[in-house]
Amino acid sequence: MGGSKLLCLTGNASQEYRLEGEGSQSRVKSIAETRDGTLWVGTIGGLYRMSPGSDSFRKVKDTIGTVRFLHETSDGTLWIGTIGHGIYKYREDKFSQITAPGSLPSNTALNLFEDVEKNIWIGTQAGMLRLSRTPIQTVALPDAGDYDAETVYQDHNGDLWVAAANLFRFHDGKAMLVRFPGISGVRVRNVFRDRDGALWIGTEGRGVFRQDGSKLVRYMTKDGLVNNFVRAFVQGQDGSVWIATDEGVSRWHAGGFTNYQERDGLCYFSTRTLFEDHNGDIWVGTDRGVSHLRSGKFAHDVVTEALKDEKIWAVREDSDGGLWFGTRSGGLYRWRFGKLVHYTTAQGLASNSIYEMLEDRRGQFWITGPNGISVIRRKELDAIAEDPAHPLSLTLYGISDGLEMTQMYGAEKPGGVVTSQGDVWFASNKGPVRVSVDQTQPSGPAPAVIDHVVADGIEIPSMRTIELAPDNAKIEMHYSVIQLRSQERVRFRYMLDGFDKRWTDASSPRVAYYTNLPPGHYHFRVAAFEMNNPQQISERSVEIIQQPRFYRTWWFLGCCVLLLGAAVWGGYEFRIRQVHARFEAVLNERNRLAREMHDTLIQGCAGVSALLEAHSSLDEADPNATDGLLSCARTQLRTTINEAREAVWDLRHADGSAPAIGPMLGNMSQQVSHEFGVPVDYTVSGKPFDLEQSTAHELLMVVREALHNAVRHGQPAKVQVSIDFGTNEFSVRVHDDGRGFDPAIVSASPNGHYGLVGIQERVKRLGGELTLNSRTGAGTEVTLRVPRKASVPRNGFSA
Question: Rounded to whole angstroms, how far apart are CA atoms 636 and 745?
Fold first, then answer.
């Protein structure tokens, strides 16, 4: 512990350490122990350290000023913040200093912090500074007024050449301005050293210079060069030098030129790149297609046809003989084994614009474009050619690595080079860019976050569950990553479980849109990963509940199902009742027909039969008696026929008014008395009224049956029929003094006689009341009462 003193506590014991300096100069401000066991103490007067095995502190002479903080970062560097003297770094027994205004906002450093991405945050008196480790370095050239670099080239001597406003050569890590005698005021676009050691210098509008030893020769259009604006060089297997220009290609051989332009078969005049494959064929990339020169003649094949509309800015051949073509806006093409494969951002490329393409010794492609430098393993591109679903690992160096979005450049060639030391250099409009290939990159997943949700234009705070109103039509899911290193390397994909069937690769706005979601429960999932490590994924999700409208809720649908079920059941019950009603109508009609037949035809036939039997039993000597019986039989037969006709009429016609029932019953009583020879008394009481025809018919049939039963089966001496027209009812009483019977026995076993059953059915149809009183040996009384307004229901077959 430190303050006005420096103490070390061990258990219950303490030990004080004295530091150099007097008074407040030895006041302790910070203490730290580095991983090698060295103890560091910062005071007002400076920095002290005690090495392992030592028992005293010694002042460090390499630093000055009050030490405010001490912090060792993950790479073993000790950061020493001072008041007024900036920051010191101690690493591998060496001190270095960072000061303002060049690197720090202020020389008073207050604090330091290292985050999980290995970024160093420094708090100073005048603001905060973030230091990020990056393998990218934009190299400053000696002429600080113009950093533009058009081409970068390394010759077989190991020298690195940079063509910018002037020509520079890097030797032993230092850039030196190169001036050639005889070349002044000329803007150099590129350089090239052939196998003979001659240096070719391409210019902007001043042709080509060739320096061989001390000899300098210039070639221009007047000397046979196709154009004075040079864009690329390549040397063929036969030693000839090919020169691409703004208006065609020239081939220099044995001091002379052979030119190739559109009229000679070149696909387009504006050339961009030259390349010779292992067969010695020359490929010329232009702003409108690629040309293939074989043995000095243009060949037309699958590649030239497929790429005829593309701007070809880069051509490379891999170690397996595959040719790669980088385009200005159409992505990347590979030609191998007679198959052309196309790669775009859909397969994982950082951009469809390719300025330059290199391959290093590890089999990695280095590709520049408008959003930086991307690194791709060639084997992964080969794997995608066989399986498009294969993931692509891509490392992108962009803004957070110190590059600007429009910094990279590739109009002239070579736009980049992989040096013999393994470093990668590219030309840019801010100066040459150097990439240290072996520098380790920070690892760890990019933590995805769902920033906010917008439903129909209203922002909803991000939470675990989001409920949407039934009338919600549009929802936006905004997502990102919490990451300070390159955001350009991060790729997203999202999926709405329950709605999407597969993952959707996200576009640059980082917003997912959904409209008119069906009611239900969903899970929105967003996954983030860096292109160089697609297997290391960070995912975030949120539950979304789209509330249904009331007519799509479970309770409403349940009620509808119940109502539908009730309607079906009601329809079924109605149909069953209808069937039962029809069946009952059929039975009633059948019983009615049976009653009519019994009370008309059968009764009449029975009477005629009795008369005929009486006729046959008489002696022929009494002609008057026989004639009388025959006359009665004829009369009975006519009556039976008339009654049958009436019955048929009743079946076919609707009810109407009937004649007075009193006289009809009187006539019937007289007829029965005359027919069977039994006295029948007939009396009427009350004020007569009319009945419906069907009702009157039923009453007549009931009384007739009662009379017939009395005279046939009761053997009475006298029968009495009494009719009463009451105020609210009509009643008939048939009484005989015959032998009587037991009603229970007759009802239980009719034995083929259905007269009593017919009487009961008719009375029931009328809605009346039937009273039967009989006892063996004491006669029989049948009383019928029906309402005044009684009517017989009509039975039929209705739907």
Answer: 32
